[in-house]
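Practice problem: predict the structure.
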Amino acid sequence: MNEFELIEKLTRSLPTNKSVVTGSGDDCAVLDLGLPDKLLLFKTDAIVEGIHFKSDAPPEKIGHKALARCLSDIASMAGTPTAALITIALPKTFDVGLIERIYAGISTLARKYDVAIAGGETTTNPERILISVSMIGLAPRGKVALRSGAEAGDAIFVTGELGGSLASRHLEFEPRVAEGRWLAEHFAVHAMIDVSDGLAGDLRHILKASRVGAELLTTAIPITRTARLASRAESSAKPPLLAALTDGEDFELLFTVAAKNAVPLIDAWKIQFPKLKLSCIGKITAGEGITLRDKTGARPFTAHGYQHFA
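Answer:
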């Protein structure tokens, strides 16, 4: 049983109440607490030593990643982050200075995005560090970007470049908070998600929630220089395209808009975010699954991104 099968099994009959607009199955829970013109976004995420970061990683970057993952999910819902709680679980023997440096990384990023660290919890965990972050944010009513709104004919876009993130970028990525909010303010975003488990894996979440398929143009997928160089240097490395589709930990925004808005979006993006690439990589189809198209034709793509327990 993989991560997503387990989540589906565990969440099938969870209790809910009238405040829940969107529960499990999207990047954040969406709650209606009666705030005028606003909905509340609620998110939790965790990183574990040996899985999400190595023991010799710079502590400030560990803290950065712990908070940035939640910020990225708020961004993918077109929200504004507000406050967070930090739970840290430590071995019985730990380096106080190292933990202080982790919190320094958390604090630096929190100040940048005006996020209050409102408290948290400390506990023990055998052998390795675990950091869990719970975050709330706000989004305008009618502007929350979900996974479930993609429509056949939509253009598919992704920000930045993909692949090779584990070389170092996964510890210092910039969450696309301003970009997500700008997109929802200026264009009708049909569906959006952040790329944490790989382009193919996260696109499948949109396709499943929206009950559609997708066709991707292989030449349009933006691939990092890191992924290209790794393929040349190591025979065992993934081909660059496969790395971009399945590596994960990119934390870019993946979203769809109506095809008629594609060119206006590209033009406006170049003015608003001239230093960040935006790529139209394909279209939503009425079928199922993902198809890759290149100069030789189209073929189904069945590989997924990263999955816990796989």
